Amino acid sequence: MEGYWITHFSAGTARGDGIAMLHGGELLGGDLERIWRGTYEEEDQKVYMRVRLSPFVRREGEEMMARERPVIMTLEGTCTEDAATLAGHPDQREDVLVHVEMRKCKAMRSPAPLRQAA
């Protein structure tokens, strides 16, 4: 699973898209409103994650959102080389279903050199 992943998630009524970097059992990422940090484990095609989401954006008319109130969640699902689907819930909030779909970013190839006019 190591690499960069495009993510789409839903958690209750919240929805979002972001990017995550997975390397050596650690996950780092974010979207326009949250920073994600956590751990992951792979076992065959199964994947398990513990992720801490911390809000960080300033909304018009509000002070910076408090980082003291992060959301920690446990997710599990399946993965292939190119995609993963996980589900779970925030700690102590089993009534809120979290669903995450991930697609691995493909390595970008260098563009062909420009040809000079003769």
Q: What does this protein look like?
A:
It is a single chain. By secondary structure, the protein is mainly beta. The protein has one domain: T3SS negative regulator GrlR (Lipocalin, Beta Barrel). 0% of the residues lie in helices and 58% in strands. It has strands at 3-11, 14-23, 26-30, 34-43, 46-55, 71-79, 83-90, 98-104.
Distance between the termini: 47 Å
Strand proportion: over 45%
Number of helices: 0
Rounded Rg: 17 Å
Search tags:
118 residues, mainly beta, Lipocalin, 8-stranded antiparallel β-barrel, 0% helix, 58% strand, globular
Give a quick summary of the entry:
The chain is mostly beta strands. It has a single domain, classed as T3SS negative regulator GrlR (Lipocalin, Beta Barrel), CATH 2.40.128.
Q: Strands, helices and their partners?
A:
Blueprint: E1 3-11, E2 14-23, E3 26-30, E4 34-43, E5 46-55, E6 71-79, E7 83-90, E8 98-104
